[in-house]
Amino acid sequence: MKPDLREVRTRHALQQSLMSLVMESGYEPITVSDIASRAGVARKTFYAHYPDKDALLIDCITPQLTTLLQSISNTDVNSLLVDNKPASYSAFKYVQENAAFFRAMLSDHGSAGFYSYILKIMTQSSYQMHQAIWQTVPNPSVDPQLIAHFLAGALLNCIIWWLNHDCNPSAESMAYTFSRLAAPGTIDVLGLD
User: Fold this and answer.
1) Residue 81 forms beta bridges with which residues?
2) Which of 8, 62, 105, 116 could form a disulfide with 110 if both were Cys (CB 3.0 to 4.6 A apart)?
């Protein structure tokens, strides 16, 4: 059954409302009333679609994150490159294209829940992306899930640093820098050449 066009429009209005409010004042101070008012709907209409503002936020960002993760899934397992660039380049490029949003969400006025959600998604992606490597090491001295969590956390914190420096240097330069920082320790701990 096709979704009701009115429902689709309402969800879209709520999403646009949240995103514009985030850009103006950060995430934490925003209330459901603020979102509903900006969208031109009643609070009960908001609750008919979402249980809270966190669920709305997840609904807003999931399609974009899915697209980003699909681009990273094209990683060459031997070189860990995507289109001849480090796999992290896609993440830096995406963040750069949405810098105002990520700056607001990953700031002191952002959301700890958002940070945790992004970290979880990035950790899963890192683990899957490195799956071929994990299979070449029969008895790793460090649990591959811990390595994936470490790499995701390091990448997310490099992104935060980069946002605080107005996305300088370039996304490509940051991707190569991240690889130079992360790869030697990971290679060493796995006993790879």
Assistant:
1) 86
2) 105
Phi first, then psi, for residue 79 (nearest 5°) are -105, -15
The two tokens of residue 178 are 């991240």
Task: Quick: pLDDT tens for 44-89.
Answer: 999 999 999 999 999 998 887 877 777 666 666 666 666 788 888 9
43: left (phi over 0), alpha (psi -120 to 50) or beta: alpha
Give the pLDDT confidence of 171-187 residue by residue, as tens digits: 999 999 999 999 888 88
Residue 41, helix vs strand vs coil: coil
What is the rounded distance in angstroms from the CA atom of residue 154 to the CA atom of residue 148?
Answer: 10
Query: pTM (2 decimals)?
Result: 0.84
The pair phi, psi for residue 72, each rounded to 5°, is -70, -30
Per-residue tokens: 75:
């990683």
Q: Let me know how many helices (H) and strands (E) the chain has, helices first.
A: 10, 2
**Contact between residue 90 and residue 72 where contact means Cβ atoms under 8 Å apart:** yes
